Amino acid sequence: MEKQSQPDLEQNEQDQPTRALTDSLQQKLDYLATLRQAITAGDDRLIYELIDGDHYHQALLNEEPNATRNAQVNLITDVHPAISHYLSTKLIDYLAHEYPFFYYEEIQLGEFQIYFGNWWDRRRFGKLNVLKVAFEFSQEEFNKLQQTFELAASHKRFNTDGIQRISADNDQLQALIDAQGDRDHQKDDLRQQLKENGQRNSLFDSGRIKEERQQIIDQLTKLADEDEQANNAHATMKDNEAKILTLSKEDTILAYEKQAIETSFKSFENFNERNRSLYVDYLTTLIGKAQVNADGE
Amino acid sequence: MLMENETKTAQKIDSATLSTHGKLSMFNEGLKSGLANGQKFTELMDQLIDTTDGETLLKAARALSDFKLDSAYVTFPHQYQNADYYLIFMSRLLSMHDDEHAVLNTRTHSESLYHVFNELSDDYTFLYQIVDNENGGAYYHEQTTGENLFYVHLERRLLRFNSRAFTNLFINKLLLKGTGVDQINTVLATLINFGHYLRDDFGFNVDFNILDVDNAAKYELREANLTGEVVDKLFVTAAQHDYMLQNSPAGHGAEIQLPGSLTIDIFDGGKPTEAKWVLTVHDPDQRVSWFDVLLHFDFIRDWYLENIDSLEIKADPLVFA
């Protein structure tokens, strides 16, 4: 304690650069002390202001950018995961209320994975950036959801076309299997024709006979190909059914996601807008709470 | 047994070596023991059909279920099969508890018995089939379908229900061909009650299997290491019927809430090294079994039947291979 007064006593004797240095170090100490105190006091609003003051002032106070507000933030980058972990408690409480369909898993300190919904095989939907108060959705998953909303206008689901295409494939394969008897008849006929063709022997017409022969052989080859396809059809159909199940499942999940968003936000546009203003909304809530607490005291 | 040995010995000794008196005496002894055996039989029969004491009833049934009435000297032209005494025992026990749904009939022109249920058509007749190996015991068997609904061993006091037979008979043959759930439930109730009476009156070890209403019952699936695809199918079909399959709080698996505060879970209840997928059914009054769920919820029943190779509830493998 006594030592603390010494720098003041000595200040006059220091040269200017040294003074600047001690001032600078003092600012760092002050910054860290304030942050430490904010954490002890549970003042999340202040913590947000300290970890990115420039963004805070621009977003909440409509002030011009000013990089000097963030002069000290590099001091704490190594403890960002711990700060993120600390801030997540209140943030996730808030989000649970605003976005009841999101669930979070802390996959490592301060890093939060988002799950959409609590239904079977729910999707991992990206990450929650606690320090920035922002969702970082998986682009692929988000795009699927966006398309789901767009397709709803034409009463389609994300995989409606895909499922129809595969179902049609299966119908065709089934038809191929069902037509085995017809093909067998045709092959018998063609073989008979081939035999007759071979017995015909004309000096003048040999070109035409050859051509006819080739046509019959082509048809037989085509039928043999179809037989082959029919033989493999059962396995293909089973694969296709598995594909349809995967697509139906995805459609079901997307339908639940769409429904969840509509229940909480009415529309996809509102949802996106809310996401964009999440930082301001949340910090405003924290300011409001601080106000209530201050008034209460 | 003793009587049998005696007659065997008697046959061995060549009749020529015996005096006439000896022969007559042996003949007479053979008759006496044969008649005594018959006498013993009728005493047991008296007990089986008239006693009001449970243990006496069980004892008589046990003795009669492997009683050999004929001997070398005395045979009886009119006899019931050993299996019939199981039926009589079951009917007597049920009627001691005022359950008369299983009607005991005799065939015309022969001494043989079978059960019918008023709730089912007479096409379905039930009787016991004795297991012809060292294990012993008997199956309660439906004749038209050949299904063995349960296995009972009176000596070892054991009863095992069989999910496959119940599914095949009551769902595939009856429910899906138009028999009402109420009628099916009446028959089920009688069979389940029989299990309760055996357990409560005589301390039988009873596995109700797919019919177990206890919330703690874990119905083991045939495919212990269930593929996610089967659960995916339930997820999709449930959504089509406005039910949501959710992540299971019980571990790796899924849960579905049905009307009547009914919760179905399907999850891996095994160890990390060895999967063991099970189904559970929870309801506040512990009155609902997985079989009841199959009877009442069409989409779950369809899913179960379509994936029966994976989902079939395992019955005791010792008696239902």
UniProtKB/TrEMBL annotation, chain A:
Named from the GO MF annotations, one term is: exonuclease activity
Which keywords label this protein? Exonuclease, Hydrolase, Nuclease
Q: What is this protein's name?
A: Exonuclease SbcC
Give the organism the record lists: Lactiplantibacillus daowaiensis
Q: What taxonomic classification does the UniProt entry list for its organism? A: Bacteria, Bacillati, Bacillota, Bacilli, Lactobacillales
